[in-house]
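A favour, since you know our structure tokens better than I do. Go ahead and set the record down below.
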Amino acid sequence: MSSKVIQTTEELVLPILRNKGLELVDIEYVKEGKNWFLRIYVDKPGGVDITECGEVSEQLSEKLDEVDPIKDPYFLEVSSPGVERPLKKKEDFENNINQNINVKLYEQIDGEKEYEGTLKAFTNDILTIEYKVKTRKKQVEIPYKKVAKARLAVVF
């Protein structure tokens, strides 16, 4: 059921986002405690503001009411993914070359299941990440299919 809700929501929200020049980052339909949440994460270069999120929420709410894909009560949330936004699609990696990222893997590469460093390249479905070990810089090549989770990472 969850995947059907996500698919229907994506079909409804994409035209709204295109009209506003916004990008769909992610959709979640999750139960937390007794409550269900339908979360839509949107972004654009320079970030989104609360007014844009509110407009998307109002328009999407109308469409969801018409189609009614969710029978149980739920909370609709539309927000920015934040500074540590997830990287889900190949385009996300292509658009974030030279950015600091955190990547968790399905299986180890060079004895590690997690890397954080600068995304130097994304070519032929291979991420090249430059990271530090003490004072030395190293590089690792990670096949896209081995990425379990990835996000931008803030450097302090």
The helical segments are 2-20, 50-67, 90-94. The longest strand covers residues 112-123.
